[in-house]
């Protein structure tokens, strides 16, 4: 079993959780979804995150989803499991079960009640102790959702205090200067290196890579874009990476709409044959005829522009 570490890089797509039209879990679509992520060239995936509608799942559903994803993922395709929960006992239990089932690590976001950075430090000290030192942790920094602001200095202090915190999911926005501070502050004599993967729909991916990010961890419904952009940048072809990104940008921008974005992503995944239904569990948006027409046009334009920019559309 491979695990995430301080040098993990590439694209770890945030996976959707498939539901049937009636809202029941669609475990069969997990298989086709994983296959689509592999075909796109992703290095791994993250499950039970925000895009995975984790907070809308019952405990037994979360475990069923986790086990199906991990069972389908081939050897070497690393899977990070989101285990954020209000209670640390539940967090630790799910995290340990995930690792026993073959996960590469777990992702934890601060709970909204953490009002100070000292409380953030104490919370992660407890979480890490309860998980055990052999469980790699990705720290999810997403203050737009959690309401918890965490400074670059505190993130660096966390990885110094807890060797198992090996990765940062960077989602603060605006956050490019924060990313720079974390990158320059880690991998030093006093602070071990921290892997940095970026979210926010990939909206600022090229700039984040230029600032030292190691890759992407977000749920864009055409993950081959992220794979190709990250690869080109790693090859030293920053301009080609940005040219390709620009061809995808209208769709990237469209998907990051608050609230509506998840419905758009799931509809796109349905159209691509990755899942059977675009169902989003309540509370959640339902696409209108106008929404669908906009998506039609944006996808058609991307299909025409991306190959001309040297990109690909995975089957």
UniProtKB/TrEMBL annotation:
Thylakoid is among the record's keywords: no
InterPro entries tied to this protein: Aldolase_TIM, DapA-like
Superkingdom of origin organism: Bacteria
Keyword entries, A-Z: Lyase
Positions of pyruvate binding: 217
GO terms under cellular component: cytosol
The protein, known as: 4-hydroxy-tetrahydrodipicolinate synthase
Family: Belongs to the DapA family.
Gene3D superfamilies per UniProt: Aldolase class I (3.20.20.70)
Species annotation: Albimonas pacifica
Entry keyword annotation includes Lyase: yes
Pfam families, per database record: DHDPS
SMART domains documented for this protein: DHDPS
Single GO MF descriptor: 4-hydroxy-tetrahydrodipicolinate synthase activity
């Amino acid at each position: 079993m491979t695990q995430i570490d301080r040098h993990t890089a590439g694209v770890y797509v945030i996976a959707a959780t498939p539901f049937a039209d009636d809202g029941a879990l669609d475990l069969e679509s997990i298989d086709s979804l994983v296959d689509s992520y592999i075909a796109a060239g992703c290095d791994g995936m993250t499950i039970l995150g925000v895009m995975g509608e984790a907070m809308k799942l019952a405990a037994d559903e979360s475990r069923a989803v986790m086990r199906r994803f991990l069972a389908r993922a081939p050897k070497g395709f690393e899977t990070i499991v989101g285990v954020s929960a209000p209670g640390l006992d539940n967090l630790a239990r799910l995290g340990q079960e995930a690792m026993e089932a073959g996960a590469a690590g777990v992702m934890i976001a601060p709970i909204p009640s953490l009002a100070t950075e000292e409380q953030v430090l104490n919370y992660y000290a407890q979480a890490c102790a309860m998980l055990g030192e052999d469980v790699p942790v990705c720290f999810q920094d997403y203050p737009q959702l959690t309401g918890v602001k965490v400074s670059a200095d505190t993130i660096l202090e966390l990885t110094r205090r807890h060797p198992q915190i090996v990765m940062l999911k960077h989602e603060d926005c605006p956050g490019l200067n924060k990313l720079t501070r974390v990158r320059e502050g880690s991998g030093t004599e006093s602070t071990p290196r921290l892997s940095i993967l970026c979210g926010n729909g990939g909206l600022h991916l090229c700039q984040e890579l230029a600032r030292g990010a190691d890759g992407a961890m977000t749920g864009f419904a055409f993950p081959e874009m992220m794979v190709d952009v990250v690869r080109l940048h790693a090859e030293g072809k920053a301009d080609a990476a940005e040219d390709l990104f620009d061809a995808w940008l209208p769709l990237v921008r469209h998907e990051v709409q608050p609230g509506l974005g998840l419905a758009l992503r799931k509809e796109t995944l349905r159209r691509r044959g990755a899942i059977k239904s675009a169902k989003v569990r309540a509370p959640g948006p339902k696409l209108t005829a106008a929404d669908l027409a906009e998506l039609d046009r944006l996808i058609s334009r991307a299909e025409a522009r991306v190959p001309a920019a040297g990109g690909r559309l995975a089957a």
